[in-house]
Design brief:
heterodimer, A: MetI-like fold, two-stranded antiparallel ribbon, B: alpha/beta, Rossmann fold, four-stranded antiparallel β-sheet, 10 strands
Chain lengths: 282, 272
C-alpha cells in the first residue's frame, strides 16, 4: 500500500513537472509567434536593416549568424572528433580519463560571457585582431567544443568492444579500426552533438558581442578581420530602442526568425539521433 | 629481427610449403598474467596441422585467454603480461613482428556472432578494405567462395546487399567465419562459437568445421564435452590456467592419464 502510494505521488509529481515545462514552453512560443508573426514576411528576411534596425529586415543578421555558427562548427567538429577518439581509443589511464572528463564538463559549464571576455582579452587586446567575425567563430567553437566532444565520446564508448576485437582479429591496426569501425558508428553522436552545439551557439550574444559583431552598417564580410551582425545582438540592439513601436515589432520578428533557426537545428538533432540509432541497430 | 607484414606472410607461406610435418602452433613455457593474477601457467602445447584441436575445461580455466594470446588480441589490454613462446610454424608470434600480419594468419571467431551494421557483402569483404591487391572481380570471387565454404551462399545470394543483422544468429556466426576466411588465414581460432546458438545451428557449425579442417588448422574452445567428442581430432583439457592433459581424442576419452581429466569428462567436475 505504502509502495503504491509513493509510486502514485512520484507519477503525479513527474507529470506535473513535465506539464509545467510544456506550459512555459507553449507560453513562450505563443508570445513570440503572436508578436513576431505580424513583422515577418519574405521581404523582412531578404532586406537589410535600415535606420539602426528600426526599419528594413534581418538579411545580414541572418547571414552573419549562419556564418558564425557554420564556421564554429567547421572548426570544432574535427577537434571534438580527435579528442573523442583519443579518449575512447587511446587514453587507457583511468585517472587521466576521469580528469579529461571533469575538464570537459567544467568547460561546458563556463558561462558564455566568460568566453566573450577571454576573446576580448586574448584576441582583441593581446593579438590586436579588432572586431572579427572569424575570432567570434573561434570563440563559439571553443564554447561548443565540450558539447560535441562529449556527445562523440559517448557514442564511441557505447560501441561494443567485440566490434573492435573483430577488426583487430581481421588484421586491422588501431587507426584502421578507428576509421572503419569507430568513426562510422560514432559519427551519429558527432552530428547530433554538432547540431546541439550549433543550437546553443546560434542563440548566444555574450561571447560575440565584444569581439565579432557590430550593431549597424555591416554587410557580408569581405575579410576575416571584419565584423558581422548577428540575430541575437540585433535583437539586443532593437530592444534598447523599445520605445519605437517599429523597432519593437522588428525585434519580435527577428526573435521569431532566431527561434525558427533554433527549432530547425533542435529537430534536426533529434532526427539525426534517431536516424543513426536505427542505422547502428540495423 | 622485426619483420613487416609482407615478411611475416611470405615466411609463413614458405614454411607451409617446405615442411607440413612440424606442429602448426607450439606453445612453450607460456605464462600470462592480468596484473598480478596469473591466468595461464607453464603452458606447453601443440596444435596439429589440419586437425580440429578442441580445448575443453571449466569456466575460468583460461581457455579463452589462451586463444586470445595466440593471435595477440590481449596485447591491447594494459594489465596483460606474458612470458614464453608461441610458435606459428616455427616463427615466434610474440616477437617484435608486425602484429597485424600475425593476426591475419590467425583468424578468430568469437563467442557471440559479431556482424557489423553493414550489408552481407560489406561484412564478408570487411577485412580486405585496406588491401589493394584484389580487383573488384577478385573480391566478388572471394565473397562467393567463402560464402560457399560456410554453406551460406544459397541462403543469401539473392540478398547480398541486405543488412547482415537480418540474418539468424546461426547464419550470422557462419557469416563471421566466412569473413574470417576471406583474409586467408592459416589457422582458425574459435572461442565457443556455438554457445549462443540453438542445437540445429550448432550442428551446422560443427559440420562446417569438419569440412574446413582439410584447409585450415582449427583450434576450437568449447564447454560442450559431447561437441568435443563429435568433432575433435586432438583434445586439450585445461583447468585453473594449466594444461592438465593433451592428446588425441580417443586416448583422452577412453583412457585418460589423469584423474582430473576422467572426472571432468565423465562428471563435468574438476577438482584442480
Amino acid at each position: 500500500m505504502n509502495r503504491r502510494l509513493i509510486n502514485e505521488v512520484f507519477t503525479i509529481f513527474s507529470s506535473l513537472a513535465a506539464l509545467f515545462c510544456l506550459v512555459v514552453l507553449c507560453f513562450l512560443l505563443t508570445v513570440i509567434v503572436s508578436q513576431g508573426f505580424p513583422a515577418l514576411s519574405f521581404k523582412f528576411i531578404v532586406s537589410p536593416a535600415k535606420n539602426f534596425g528600426a526599419e528594413g529586415g534581418v538579411l545580414y543578421q541572418l547571414l552573419g549568424s549562419l556564418l558564425l555558427v557554420i564556421c564554429a562548427g567547421v572548426i570544432s567538429l574535427p577537434i571534438a572528433l580527435g579528442v573523442a577518439i583519443y579518449k575512447s581509443e587511446y587514453l587507457q589511464n583511468s585517472r587521466l580519463q576521469l580528469l579529461s572528463h571533469l575538464l570537459l564538463y567544467a568547460l561546458n559549464a563556463v558561462p558564455s560571457v566568460v568566453f566573450g571576455i577571454f576573446g576580448l582579452i586574448f584576441f582583441v587586446n593581446i593579438l590586436h585582431t579588432g572586431l572579427s567575425w572569424f575570432v567570434g567563430s573561434i570563440i563559439l567553437a571553443l564554447m561548443i567544443l565540450p558539447t560535441i566532444t562529449l556527445s562523440c565520446y559517448q557514442s564511441m564508448s557505447s560501441i561494443p568492444h567485440s566490434y573492435r576485437d573483430t577488426a583487430y582479429a581481421l588484421g586491422f591496426n588501431n587507426w584502421q579500426t578507428v576509421i572503419q569501425v569507430v568513426l562510422p558508428q560514432g559519427i551519429g553522436g558527432a552530428i547530433t552533438g554538432l547540431l546541439m552545439g550549433l543550437t546553443r551557439a546560434i542563440g548566444e550574444t555574450a561571447p560575440i558581442m565584444f569581439i565579432a559583431t557590430a550593431f549597424s552598417g555591416v554587410t557580408i564580410p569581405q575579410t576575416l578581420n571584419t565584423p558581422v551582425s548577428s540575430l541575437p545582438t540585433h535583437i539586443l540592439a532593437l530592444t534598447k530602442q523599445a520605445t519605437q513601436p517599429q523597432a519593437l515589432s522588428n525585434a519580435w520578428g527577428a526573435s521569431l526568425v532566431l527561434l525558427t533557426l533554433v527549432l530547425i537545428l533542435s529537430i534536426s538533432a533529434l532526427f539525426s539521433r534517431h536516424y543513426f540509432k536505427l542505422r547502428t541497430q540495423r | 629481427m622485426k619483420m613487416n607484414r609482407t615478411g611475416v606472410t611470405q615466411l609463413l607461406q614458405q614454411v607451409a610449403i617446405e615442411d607440413s610435418q612440424i606442429p602448426c602452433i607450439k606453445m612453450q613455457e607460456f605464462n600470462a598474467w592480468f596484473d598480478k593474477n596469473q591466468v595461464l601457467k607453464d603452458i606447453n602445447l601443440q596444435f596439429n596441422l589440419h586437425q580440429i584441436n578442441c580445448i575443453i575445461g571449466p569456466s575460468g580455466s583460461g581457455k579463452s585467454t589462451l586463444l586470445r594470446s595466440i593471435n595477440r588480441i590481449n596485447d591491447d589490454i594494459t594489465s596483460f603480461k606474458h612470458q614464453g613462446e608461441i610458435l606459428l610454424k616455427g616463427i615466434n608470434v610474440l616477437a617484435d613482428h608486425d602484429v597485424t600480419a600475425i593476426r591475419k594468419q590467425l583468424g578468430m571467431v568469437f563467442q557471440k556472432p559479431c556482424v557489423f551494421p553493414n550489408s552481407i557483402r560489406e561484412n564478408i569483404l570487411f577485412g580486405l578494405q585496406f588491401d589493394n591487391t584484389y580487383s573488384l572481380q577478385q573480391r566478388q570471387t572471394i565473397m562467393e567462395d567463402k560464402l560457399k565454404a560456410v554453406a551460406l551462399w544459397n541462403e543469401v545470394q539473392q540478398r547480398l546487399n541486405s543488412p547482415a543483422t537480418d540474418l539468424s544468429l546461426g547464419q550470422q556466426q557462419r557469416l563471421c567465419i566466412a569473413r574470417t576466411l576471406a583474409v586467408n588465414p592459416q589457422v582458425l581460432l574459435l572461442d565457443e562459437p556455438t554457445s549462443s546458438l540453438d542445437p540445429v545451428s550448432s550442428r551446422a557449425i560443427e559440420d562446417l568445421m569438419l569440412q574446413l579442417k582439410d584447409r585450415y588448422t582449427i583450434i576450437f574452445v568449447t564447454h560442450n564435452i559431447l561437441q568435443a567428442k563429435r568433432i575433435a581430432d586432438r583434445l586439450i583439457f585445461m583447468c585453473d590456467g594449466q594444461v592438465i592433459e593433451q592428446g588425441n581424442k580417443e586416448q583422452l576419452f577412453n583412457n585418460p592419464a589423469k584423474q582430473q581429466t576422467w572426472d571432468y569428462l565423465n562428471n563435468e567436475y574438476c577438482n584442480c
